[in-house]
Design brief:
Blueprint lengths: L4 E14 L2 E14 L3 E5 L6 H8 L7 E6 L2 E2 L5 H11 E5 L10 H6 L9 H14 L15 H13 L5 E5 L7 H18 L2 E6 L2 H4 L4 E6 L2 E7 L1
Parallel strand pairs: 3-8, 3-9, 6-7, 7-8
Antiparallel strand pairs: 1-2, 1-4, 4-5, 9-10
Helix pairs in contact: 4-5, 5-6
Amino acid sequence: MNNSHIVITEGLVKHYPIGGGYFTALDGIDLQFGTGEFAGVVGPSGSGKTTLLNIIGSLDSPSEGKAVILDQSVGELSQKQAAHLRKKYLGFIFQTYNLLPVYTVFENVEFPLLLLNMSVSDRRKAVLDALEWVGLNDKIKSRPAQLSGGECQRVAIARAMVKKPRLVLADEPTANLDAANSHHILQTMEKLNKDLDTTFIFATHDDKVIKYLKRKITLEDGKVIKDEIT
């Protein structure tokens, strides 16, 4: 791991309007993440984990303070610039998989590459490589309904990793999986982190995930109360 910071937040605040006032989801977050980290933001529901991931992923913008992702300040990006940042450099893994049911496994994993200027042969190689990383080469023609929950999540990981992103954001990626599948998924992500030097940031309160983290940041009521190397 080198020390170049790919995520920096300074005094990050996020308010959401409620009734006549507002709810503060994040309250002055100062964090830095370097290349190749395997880190998690942990804490109870409502602590601000998902909000923080959404801002780092340029899906939301700060109310105050700043979030700088790969030298780009999220609050200053146009919608088009934010979409370009996500398209080129970021991968997302959600607890609900978000696979397209009418598409095959191959087509689901290929989908992010259709937005990039790649040849058909380069796309095919990238998809097959990604499916090999997650051990699903034998399922390329299957559709999501024919897969188990664990297999669906592995397809989602392949889709997130297919363009070799600099940063992967994983929001409760094991929430719908049993223990055996959770460990398989986490070992896969750990290997990709090492092999590709991709930075992973999780939002989780799952003890199975927490055991794999190299760094654990604890949020409570929108504030960082602990930041430890594990």
